[in-house]
Design goal:
The termini are far apart. The protein is 56% helix and 0% strand. It has 3 helices and no strands. By secondary structure, it is an all-alpha fold. The radius of gyration is 22 Å and the shape is elongated. The longest helix is centred in the middle third of the chain and has 28 residues. Helix 2 runs antiparallel to helix 3. It has a domain of 62 residues.
Length: 105
């Protein structure tokens, strides 16, 4: 099965809403792109052409961005994982933070 079909095949069956989210994003993006292009050019034909090309490509890129985001540790709602500040260490030898023994490096 092709990579694209694997992404789309079971969409929505396990709570994955990224395809629905992509479609609503596309509608919003087309509307905004047309409005901006029309206001800049004053021409409905040019505004329509610009509004179709850029968002179409961007929508495809967004879909794959969502898939990569969910695989890389981001969540479906866009939240990121919370890190305990105690687990974060400054770079070794950084003069801005005290060394482990309490003295500046």
């Amino acid at each position: 099965m092709s990579v694209l079909l694997q992404f789309i095949h079971h969409h929505g069956s396990q709570g994955d809403q990224s395809l629905v989210k992509t479609i609503t994003f596309a509608c919003t993006h087309f509307t905004v792109a047309f409005t901006v292009a029309y206001l800049l050019t004053g021409d409905i034909i040019i505004g329509s052409l610009l509004a179709m090309i850029e968002p179409a490509i961007n929508t495809i890129a967004y879909f794959f961005h969502e898939k990569l985001w969910s695989r890389s540790g981001g969540t479906e709602d866009g939240a990121v994982k919370v890190v305990d500040p105690a687990d974060v260490r400054p770079p070794e030898g950084c003069p801005c933070y005290p060394a482990a023994d309490g003295m500046n490096a």
